[in-house]
Amino acid sequence: MSEALANLLSETRQFPPPAELAAHANVTIDAYAEAEGDRLAFWAKQADRLAWSKKWDEVLDWSNPPFAKWFVGGQLNVAYNCLDRHVEAGRGDKVAIHWEGEPGDTRTITYADLHELTCRAANALTDLGVTAGDRVAIYLPMIPEAAVAMLACARIGAAHSVVFGGFSADSLSNRIQDASAKVVITADGGYRRGKPSALKPTVDEAVANCPSVDHVLVVRRTGEEVAWSEKDLWWHETVETASAEHTAQPFDAEHPLFILYTSGTTARPKGILHTTGGYLTQASYTANAVFDLKPETDVYWCTADIGWVTGHSYIVYGPLSNGVTQVMYEGTPDTPHKGRFWDIVEKYRVSILYTAPTLIRTMMKWGEDIPAGHDLSSLRLLGSVGEPINPEAWMWYREHIGGGALPVVDTWWQTETGAIMISPLPGVTAAKPGSAMTPLPGIVADVVDDQGQSVPNGGGGYLVLREPWPSMLRTIWGDDERFIDTYWSRFEGMYFAGDGAKKDDDGHIWLLGRVDDVMLVSGHNISTTEVESALVSHPSVAEAAVVGATDPTTGQAIVAFAIPRGSTDITGDAGEQLIADLRNHVSKTLGPIAKPRQIMLVPELPKTRSGKIMRRLLRDVAENRSLGDVTTLQDSSVMDLISSGMTGAK
Ligand code: 6R9
User: Fold this and answer.
1) Hey, what CATH class is 38-332 in?
2) What is the separation of C-alpha 166 from the centre of its chain, rounded to a whole number of angstroms?
3) Which ligand 1 atom is nearest residue 498's CA?
4) ipTM score here?
5) Which of 71, 216, 506, 514 would you label with 599, given CA atoms 20 to 30 Å apart?
6) pTM recorded for the entire structure
7) pLDDT tens digits, residue range 607-624?
8) Domain edges within the chain
9) In this model, does residue 344 exceed pLDDT 50?
């Protein structure tokens, strides 16, 4: 591997769990040995944490790989597991969701309330002709009805397909058509950046091309005027008037639970299919193990959007199946001011926070004074997901949000894996800043070379999963061939995740970003993540994105985009000086081979709504091409901002 490897691996700081947390942790070190001893028995034990109407006959049927069947013959209802059993156990009055609207309006929803709403929605959907096996598209803002809609589908055995509220009419239409959804659940709009942001017009445009859709159910959120067609029904007139009595029917463990389209930063979106028993087993177990959820005392907050897999597994199914109290927030982190997140933590006494590196770096950019002005003493555990977290951002998170004492769990997983796969256990692992550390108990991950051979400690290559896991995707909706080609053909008998990774000298795993993003500079493989981390480790840089641009001499050349931190002066010569400093800083940190050819200081970076940097668009800028498809961008004006606000462009 390149010299860069040695440098990244020189990150030796390590933070053991706080003694108090370790002493009372839900999961101890024994879990690893137990799962290693008998992996299937281990997962059967985790499945037993759920309520089954009929016990399974076989834990795993892997007779026709890569098509797995978990908990064969078992039957259960997912909504029953998330709601009814808590209510039946006398915990109906416990708060399930503290909901906070962006304008400051709030709702407190107990498990009994959520159960009632879900039963009404299940009855309403049934009345609209939705039956088990049908598909329902959900296009909603972050309001409680989003969780209700998902749970109601699960309750009646209809697969939901949640589409990000930020997607265009075309993207929505394609996804509705691909799944032949019968009903679309949406809202007039939601609040974003201090004002109503309409959704219904996009749905109207999308549905015009979707003959499969019989009805559109519309939640009234903003009260803004909407166009109305004969397919449209108001949620408050349909769902809220439906009966609150509903008995959940059990479904087969392999009954489809949901389809979720991957963000598709490159190719045609893939409809990732998840099923019932295995998915809920692993979503529920990992929420309990990785976040150490204590339903009696914890207030958990995952800041993801429900339209992202993180929202599915760690807002809806994981936390609710564990019966914990959580916070759900509708809006953006800087509305009405940059301390909004910390207001929320303080107000609800949040104890567990799960967010994304992009947000942490944004908070770094805004400066530590903002969190410092808040009482964050309720926090006891911090999590990260979505991208590699740079060591610098990890340290900032621990230091300025975690008071220098809290464990940070960096959790690696994908829409396809359904649940967390590689992560520290907060009561066990001495975590290293920037490393996802080790596969969770019951998960067999590895890093392999081009030939599929396991690399030794200190080596780098491709991340693979060697054994099936309960919450694995079952296929790509309607396209088994593509499922096999994309994930199971690169290496014989292994799941190919598409991420680059390294093992350090202790065998701990470091994720290096998508393999498509690895650059080849003068014959050296250099990962975008490493150069980005080197840039972010400079005191003047808050965020960075690195791409490989075609170069006549070196094959590819490193082009970096950096957002300066808070008050950094970049006017005139100061900007040029900073660029020169940064190039030298990278060269010193990673070696001369990693020195960027060009660095541009920019006010923003293009990101998907789930917070991933869209390097494809930056490559267009770096190679002076006209921009490709920008429809999945969180904010499409960012690209104009970048082009007009660039310092250092040649
Ligand atoms: C959960 C989610 C999956 C891709 C994945 C990887 C990146 C996610 C990460 C991480 C490094 C982490 N990713 N978590 N990379 N460290 N802790 O994000 O799902 O939207 O499908 O994205 O995200 O590249 O392959 P999804």
Assistant:
1) alpha beta
2) 15
3) 25
4) 0.99
5) 514
6) 0.92
7) 877 788 888 889 888 887
8) 38-332, 522-646
9) yes
